[in-house]
Amino acid sequence: MAVVAGEILPDTGAKPWHPPAGMSLGAAFFVRGDFPWLGHYFGSQKLASILSPDIGGIVSWGGRSPAKMAARIARFRRLRHWHLEDGFLRSMGLGKTGAIPLSIVIDDLGLPVDVSRPSRLERLIEGGAETAELGRAIREQIVLNRLSKYNHLPHQPPRIERTAKRRILLVDQVVGDVSVGRALGSKASFEKMLADGLASDAQCIIRTHPDVMAGLRKGYLTNGVSTGDVLLLDDAVSVASILDVVDEVWTVSSQFGFDALLRGIPVRCYAAPFYAGWGVTEDHFGVYTKAALAGRRTRRRTVDQIAAAAFSLYPTYRDPADWREIDVFRAIELIVAQQKAAA
Hints:
The chain is an alpha/beta fold. It has a domain at about 155-295: 3-Layer(aba) Sandwich (Rossmann fold). It is about 30% helix and about 15% strand. It is built from twelve helices and 15 strands. It is globular. This is Capsular biosynthesis protein.
């Protein structure tokens, strides 16, 4: 049981789709090299090679080529396979800077960004009719503490010119972002989003990706866009600070949209991220996306029900100090404490 503000919240229970305790697991070389802490999420075991004869299953990270190869090897060897990814409340710092995550997701069906197949997250949202109380408590703590997936940027107002118009945030993403294609988005999705924004008579602001501004990656929107038509926002400020000054958020598949929903901001989606299709977003899906979701996400869910699944029922949290399992509320406390220590 978790206790928040005097309330006793329901126990989220075990996650029966996870690897059985004690099962020896294999992973690709780059996974074992880039995530040396990963074994702590599986009984502190040392992950073996995916070709090892003694493993009972294979884990893969993300959705790029090595993960696809791991899945093929698992099928060939008739071994179980689990997809791994960062949780939606990850850490204070970025993974690329070496920050160890407080949460990961472990899924035996598919990645939560992959709309072509159901994931455990989708099934949890579908069945989450009794989770609104838990989700409300999580949402209130995240909003109160101004948190997002990463929490290293300062809370300060972005430099945006004043306007009396409605202000729409268009969220750019990095070209090649797996979550775009897996959510059935494309370059055309961003072009449609931008065209709709420019035709809306609102002030359009494009949130640029830090890697794009640093010249390390290309963005779908921020390369070749006329700054006379829209404002490019590259201020190094927190997600919460940006959401404080916008009226709507339009996105293809970014988690930025979910952050906006938690704060009661209207969200329009041009692809199908995990939080779309449940009645809480304005969905501008194409015919192919509608066909892929046919018969799924048929129930209406609230933001709080989705939050309960995404932040509590689905991910696994551990404290990197001793690797003991914790819940989402303790993870929030740890991130806030880290922020205070760094201030």
